[in-house]
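Our consortium's second objective concerns turning raw sequence data into structural hypotheses that experimental partners can test. To show how far this objective has progressed, the report includes one record in full. It was chosen at random from the queue rather than selected for favorable results. The single chain below, 70 residues long, was entered without modification.
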Amino acid sequence: MRDELVPEHMMIIESLEKRGTARSEIRAGGYNFSAFQPERLKEISRGIAETSGLSYEDVCVLYDGPIFAG
């Protein structure tokens, strides 16, 4: 699903950057929000990172980017 996840990730990043949020802050926010996820979801995110070419932090942005933008 790399072809679907990477563009989605970039759309979230670009949308938040247009609102004035730094990329490093976006990635840190996604990672910090992941602390509240169950361990099983974290394992799934790690697997997605391994197979998609995205970092774990970037996968967290996929899950939590809409929360960040809220």
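The partners drew two points from this record. The helical segments are 2-18, 23-34, 39-52, 56-69. Residues 2-69 form one domain. Both points have been shared with the crystallography group to help prioritize constructs.
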